[in-house]
From TrEMBL:
Pfam families: FOP_dimer. This is Centrosomal protein 20. One of its GO terms (cellular component) is ciliary basal body. Involved in the biogenesis of cilia. Required for the recruitment of PLK1 to centrosomes and S phase progression. Belongs to the CEP43 family. Keywords: Cell projection, Cilium biogenesis/degradation, Cytoplasm, Cytoskeleton. It is found in: Cytoplasm, Cytoskeleton, Cilium basal body; Cytoplasm, Cytoskeleton, Microtubule organizing center, Centrosome, Centriolar satellite; Cytoplasm, Cytoskeleton, Microtubule organizing center, Centrosome, Centriole; Cytoplasmic granule. Coiled coil: none annotated. Its main location: cytoplasm. It comes from the Eukaryota. Residues 43-100 form the FGFR1 oncogene partner (FOP) N-terminal dimerisation domain. InterPro entries: FOP_dimerisation-dom_N, LisH.
């Protein structure tokens, strides 16, 4: 019969292999942040430059499937929940988009 320690090890290994454990840890961190977030303390206004920088960071996080990290960024920074239009970003940054793979 398996011991409790062995069952815990197998469960942890299975959750890690499925990618669930990382998601659970990230979700717990996000929820702890939300619980500790002091809504009574106003955030400084988000500058135009920071808005663009945060949007680039969000795009990177979402591209790499770091959705919980992106949700913490949005919550903590005051970034709008709806992403900025990609064409707007390209114009503002004087960038160009590669037509083959939609990268900037």
């Amino acid at each position: 019969m398996a011991t409790v320690a062995e069952l815990k090890a197998v469960l942890k290994d299975t959750l890690e292999k499925r990618g669930v454990l990382g998601h659970l840890k990230a979700r717990i961190r996000a929820e702890v942040f939300n619980a500790l977030n002091d809504e009574s303390e106003p955030r400084p206004p988000l500058s135009h430059e920071n808005l663009l920088i945060n949007e680039l960071i969000r795009e990177y996080l979402e591209f790499n499937k770091y959705k919980y990290t992106a949700s913490v960024l949005i919550s903590e920074s005051g970034q709008p929940v709806v992403p900025l239009d990609r064409q707007f970003l390209i114009r503002e940054l004087n960038a160009f988009e590669e037509s083959k793979d939609n990268t900037m």
